[in-house]
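Worked Example 4.2. Consider the chain below.
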Amino acid sequence: MKTKRVLIILVGLTLTFTVGILAYSQMEEIQPKMLLIYGLIGIVAIISILSAIKKMKEEKEGQPIYDELTTQIKHKAGHDAYIASMYMWLFIFLFRDLFPDTETMVGGGILLSALIGFIAKTIVRRKFNEK
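Applying the procedure from the previous section yields the following structure tokens:
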């Protein structure tokens, strides 16, 4: 158990250090959209680390981490997120003239795909009354 906690802390610190180096290296020419992307990456990292800590506590209490319902929720949420992401990418490429450059289009699409996955998982959990 202690090894997992150390590993999570190490990953979190590495991610924070990397984001800090990236932000520092672009201090003079940092753009607001890049600051937004860095912020979203940090938020996703914090959510991931907190969910991993929650799973470790549940495992320590003796609760099963993966059961049949959890597997069904993952599969259903993954399917829904995949379908929604495909439509989202279709609309991004149809309306690519609205984006200022390719990096914004691809970066926004990747972040939206991650957000869609998170939302799909939350909706499916609520549908199955799983907390």
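The mean pLDDT is 79. The radius of gyration is 18 Å. Compare this with Example 4.1 before moving on.
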